[in-house]
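Lab notebook, bench 4. The sequencing result for the construct came back, and we need a structural model before the next group meeting so we can plan mutations. Quick request posted to the team channel:

Model the 3D structure of this chain.
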Amino acid sequence: MPTILVTNDDGIYSPGIQILAKTLKALGDVYIVAPDRERSAVSHSLTLHRPLHADEIKERVYSVNGTPTDCVNIGVNGILKAKPDLVVSGINKGANMGDDITYSGTVMAAIEARILGIPSFAISLVASENYLFQESANFGLMLSKAMLTRGLPDDTLLNVNLPNLPLSVMKGVRITRQGKRIYGDVVTEIVDPRGKRHFWIGGNRLSWEKGEDTDFEAIHEGMISITPLHVDLTNYSAIEKLKPLEETLISLIKTDKVLTE
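Done. Here's the predicted structure in token form:
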């Protein structure tokens, strides 16, 4: 019977993770190891400056005073007796598409699992209210079963986004690429009653770059988006283009010159 570790960045009491974990029990033994509070947009943050504790709030359910990345590490290396067969991160309240995935604690938890050699996927529900978590959880069950049977290519994890619709009316499933968000103002300045300036980081998400095969387009068309990601961030297509820079720098080092312009 497979072992599945479930985590998120919305916190252990989020209905998304509770419904997901309950649904995945149809496949095997499910453990929840999740942050004790919301940790959205913490990206791949790992806590190194203080000890962490994991409270078992009920059987196989652990609350950690850390980040999603911490939770995966503690779950895999501290709580479970053996590596899980699968790590599932979610269900996130809101989309994780385009450039936003670099901020997402949900996606980075799945990346951490992949770094540790465990198949994983992140799952997010594109909505801001009236979340149909059970629909997403049902799809998460289907995908988990498929992954446990078929596996994934090396160094690959999946970023899944679902429209907030019943599965029966969705238009299908599409394997997509990461799109690109077009932002408005990223920082808003406000002044409190005492005249002190504050800054609110968030940005207005205006639109996205067009492209038929992107995660944004799939969701816009009422489809489930599955984007394969990998941990290797190397831009291989740029290596040859940067050879002249390599040669310039070698020459400068040899002559001990410093560019002034």
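The longest helix spans residues 133-150.
Will bring this to the meeting.
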